[in-house]
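Team,

Forwarding the record for the chain on the shared tracking sheet. I've put the sequence and predicted structure together so nobody has to dig through attachments.
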Amino acid sequence: MAVDLNLHAVIGPLVLSALAVPALVLCEYRLYRPGRYLFKPLAAMAFLWLAIAAGATGSVYGQWILAGLVCCMAGDLLLMPDSERWFLAGLFAFLCGHLCYALGFLSLDYSLAGLALSSLPAMALMVLSLRWLLPHLDSTMKAPVLLYTLVITGMLLCAGVSAAQPGAGLIISGAWGFALSDLAVARQQFVRPSPVNGLWGLPLYFISQMLLAASVATVHS
């Protein structure tokens, strides 16, 4: 897979992410809230910066991915306070991010074989996630979580459609990493709050966003 990235242009966001994400993980593990408010926006800025440096504004695909990254950064900021109201707002922002990513994937040439191969694992993830989560949800959260899970599943299917693209590895890895990182958020919010959730969920989430941001360099029109 050839990826057309100008290393001089992307070194800044890569360094920022490499510094901010581990610092954020450490602060979350130690429950140091000021660190969350400092390093989480910096880590989100890194994936936006990478997408722009990789040429996101130069293609329809890149513009959709950039829009999704903006939504995800908004979700990151909205999830910083420990509040159910802010959590729902963040959930909506991430839902919009998933939709933007799906539309970006669909702007590329289709691979029906990729769609077929992604269907079973995407549906399995949806069913297993709902079976795990639904018993832990109150009545007000069941509909939002169900909708969000359906949107994630759709996004994964759309990522599979990109299988014939030069950047398919970045796209599919980023999409699945993003979806799986949501399980850490769900566990933290609904099942078993623990600093351990962030030890794997946060790095997976930010790496996935960086992969999707980098994928725009593989699309030039």
